[in-house]
Amino acid sequence: MSSSNFEKKIFSRKEIAQQCKNWQKNESRICFTNGCFDVLHVGHVKYLSEAKALGDLLVIGLNSDSSIKKLNKGPNRPINAENDRAYLLAALEFVDCIIIFNEETPETLINEITPNILVKGGDYDPNEAEKSHPKYIVGRDVVLKNGGVVKTIDFVDGFSTTETLNKM
Questions:
Q1: How far out from the chain centre does Cα 21 lie?
Q2: Is 151 in contact with 54 (CB distance < 8 Å)?
Q3: Predicted model pTM
Q4: DSSP 3-state helix, strand, coil percentages of the chain (rounded to 5)?
Q5: pLDDT higher than threshold 50 for residue 66
Q6: pLDDT per residue over 90-139, tens digit each?
Q7: How many CB atoms lie within 10 A of CB 57?
Q8: Quick one: 160 exposed, middle or buried, by C-beta within 10 A (0-12, 13-18, 19+)?
Q9: Rounded to the nearest 5 degrees, what angle is found at the Cα of 89, between the Cα atoms of 163 and 67?
């Protein structure tokens, strides 16, 4: 796959809602997940591969640089710029689409694309309905209301961006 094919996986905010509607019209099940994916590691790759297996298309909401700063991930975060992170994710064969978002959460984005499957890591609870609870999955209500499902995928032990940065 040439680099231009990678770049075709990175959608603008304007393009994404229509693209997802087109995919769903063709009866493709869209699986959505989100994150910073600042220092890509084996845990991310396994997580994203498992997420893709839950649907036909994997759409990733990628926190922008400004979004990561708002989340207080650390004084020097992000390590990698949003366009670089998007490009690395696009290089993964099982990733179909990346959309960079500026908000602290992907709630608006999830409302815009209404995925069939919403996935987060094992530190969240797909059954938690209280929005203020730390284990609540943002967008859960929208996905369930539209007949979708919410799932979690266990972390791979020994792999985290924080652990990787601590080793450095």
A1: 18
A2: yes
A3: 0.90
A4: 40, 20, 45
A5: yes
A6: 999 999 999 999 999 999 999 999 999 999 998 899 999 999 999 999 99
A7: 22
A8: middle
A9: 70
- What proportion of the chain, given as a percentage, has pLDDT over 90? 74
**Is the previous residue joined to 78 through a cis bond, with omega within 30 degrees of 0?**
yes
- The answer to whether 133 and 127 have CB atoms below 8 angstroms apart is no
Query: Tokens for 153?
Result: 């995928």
Among candidate residues 148, 166, 139, the one with its CA nearest the CA of residue 61: 139
CB 50 within 8 Å of CB 122 = no
Domain boundaries, the chain: 3-167
Strands 117-121 and 30-35: parallel
- DSSP notation for 117-164: EEEEETTS-TT---TTSTT--TTHHHHHHTT-EEEEEPPPTT--HHHH
Q: Does domain 3-167 sit in CATH 3.40.50.620?
A: yes
Q: Work out the angle at residue 103's Cα, subtended by the Cα atoms of residues 33 and 59, and round it to the nearest 5 degrees.
A: 25
